[in-house]
Every structure is written in C-alpha cells, then in structure tokens.
Known about the structure:
- By secondary structure, this protein is mainly alpha-helical.
- The chain has one domain.
- 68% of the residues lie in helices and 2% in strands.
- It is built from ten helices and two strands; from the N terminus they run ααββαααααααα.
- The protein has helices spanning 21-38, 40-60, 71-101, 104-109, 115-145, 153-177, 186-201, 213-219, 223-235, 251-272; strands at 64-66, 69-70.
- It has a two-stranded antiparallel sheet.
- It is globular and about 60 Å long.
- The N and C termini lie far apart (74 Å).
Amino acid sequence: MTTTTKPATPVAAPAARRLGPGALALRQGRMEITQFLRSRESVVFTMGFPIIMILIFASIFHGEIGGGVKFTQYFITGMIATGLMTVSFQNLGIWIPIERDRGVLKRYRGTPMPKWVYFAGKVIMVVAIGVAETALLLLVAVLLFDLKLPDTAAKWLTFGWVSALGVTACTLGGIAISSLARTARSGSAVVTPVALVLQFISGVFFVFTELPNWMQQVAALFPLKWMCQGLRSVFLPDGFGGQEPAGSFELGRVALVLALWCVIGLALCLTTFRWTTRRDG
C-alpha cells in the first residue's frame, strides 16, 4: 500500500515593508548628514568658520560699541547669520553641482523615489548641522567672551523664527543658484564670491550703520542683512533699535522680507533646477 503525501502549501515570502513619506525623508536626511560628516573639509569650513572668525575678531576688538555692550555681543549676530547661510546657501550651492556632475541626481531621477525626498534630505541636513553649529558657536562665545544670552521667552521666540525663515530662504537660494554652475568645479566659483560680498555689505564683519549708505541699500535687497538685523534685536538691548537705519529693529519688515525671499527662492527652484548636466541634455 502506497501512501501519498499532500504537497506542502507554499508559504508566501513576507512583502517588503514600504516606507512612508516621513520615514523616506528621515532616511534620506540621515544619509545626507553622514555624507556631510565624512567630508572633513566641509565640516571644518562650515562648522569651524564662524567660531574661528569670532575668536579672531573678539581677540582684536576688546572695546564696546556703546551703552556697555561689548563688540562680541554685536558680532555674534552676524556670525550666527553667516553660519546659517554657509550651511544652507553656500554648502548646497557647491555640493549639488558636484552631485549633478557625478550623475548622482540623474540616478535619483531614475529611481521610484519621489523627487521631493531628495530635497527633504537636504533640508534635514541643513537644519541639523545649522542647529549644531549655532549651539557650538553660542557655547564658545558664552564660555570665552561672556556673551549674554537672550533673557526673555519673547527674544528666544524671535531668535527661532528669524533663524527658521532665514535658513529657509538661504536653503532655497542655494538650491536655485546651484543650477548656474556648469560643472562641479565651477560651483565654488559661482557661490563663494556671492556669499563673501553679502557678508561684507550686510553687517557681518562691521557695524552695519558704519557702512556707506549705498552699500546698506544694496544689502537690504538680500536676506542676510535682515537675518542680522532680526538677530540684533535678540542679542542687543532694546534701546539699540534706535541706532538702526530706520530707527528700530523693524521685526515686521524682517519677517516680510525673509518670507518674500522664501517665495522667490521656491519659484526659482521650481523653474530652474536641473537634474542633469547640460552635456547630458
């Protein structure tokens, strides 16, 4: 008597778990942060530049700008603003052309991953590095130069929204300007001069009201000047608002200009961003 064995029912392999939009963005953000930290040059320049500059300037200028306020207390506002601009505008404007030239963006576009995830990863990286950089800068200034931190919740709130709007405008600007670079090597040549000029005319290295009037007018067209002005309202006494060109810190106008630059930057990104080099078509 022969017995027959019932064929085993095949067991379906478990379906691969699909990541949701938030998980995709976080994974891309972690990858961007990891890549950033692996580049020693980027870490040293982006994280170290504001700290090195405040160490140099604070060591040279020991005096006060008036009203019992040290020059360091004024200078920190420009260093925070330029640090955020460096990690967003300058960093993205240089690295995106490199990724485009190496074909990284072309491969991204050919994958099923939604295109917005790539940009979300860049934003997460900018925010994470920007927060770390700002915290480190404040720590150094407090420990070495007796920096006085904001003493009210309102000033911390202003610090938050000025930084958020400013870094958003600079991030979108960095993505937009990345399309001007024809090759990986030209990214730095396109972005760095723009960043340096904006720093010099926006009150980063000098007291803004001591700059020529025409220079102040040009600086007022760009977000860095308004970032510095908004941060001055946080770190300087309220009475210093009277020394601004308009006689006040103009926080309403600061918010308006930075928000407008966010809209302009987004429009430029949507209309000019390229996933491939010109030679690839």
